[in-house]
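Anyone able to model this chain together with magnesium ion?
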Amino acid sequence: MPILEGKNLTRAFGGLIALKEVNLEVQPHEILGIIGPNGAGKTTCFNVLTGFYPPTSGDVFFDGRRSLPPPWKNGPSWEWSGPFSIRAFSRN
Ligand SMILES: Nc1ncnc2c1ncn2[C@@H]1O[C@H](COP(=O)(O)OP(=O)(O)OP(=O)(O)O)[C@@H](O)[C@H]1O
Ligand SMILES: [Mg+2]
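re: yes, here you go
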C-alpha cells in the first residue's frame, strides 16, 4: 500500500491551472523526485501534497487516510499537526 497517494489533484490559481489531474503513489521507503521545466507545477505539487495549499479538486491520502488541508489562520503563524508536521510563518 502506498504511504502517500495523490488522486486526481488539480490546483488552479484563478484561471491558471498549475496542476491538472495529477496522480501519484509513493511506496514506503521509496524516494521519488519530481522533475520538470520552470513553471511546470513541481512546487505546487509539493504544496498540495503537504497540505500547504488545498487542492482545487482531488484528494491526498497519507497512510491510507485522507489528509485534510490545514486550517488557515489570520495570525502571523500557524502550525498543523497532520500526517506531516508543518510550521509556516509569515509577516503580516
Ligand atoms: N501562489 C500562486 N499564485 C498564482 N500562481 C501561482 C502560484 N504558485 C504558482 N503559480 C503558478 O503556477 C504554475 C506552476 O508554478 P510552480 O511554482 O508550481 O512551478 P515549478 O515547477 O515549481 O517551477 P520552478 O521550476 O520555477 O520552481 C506557474 O505558472 C506559476 O506562475
Ligand atoms: Mg518550484
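The longest helix spans residues 42-49.
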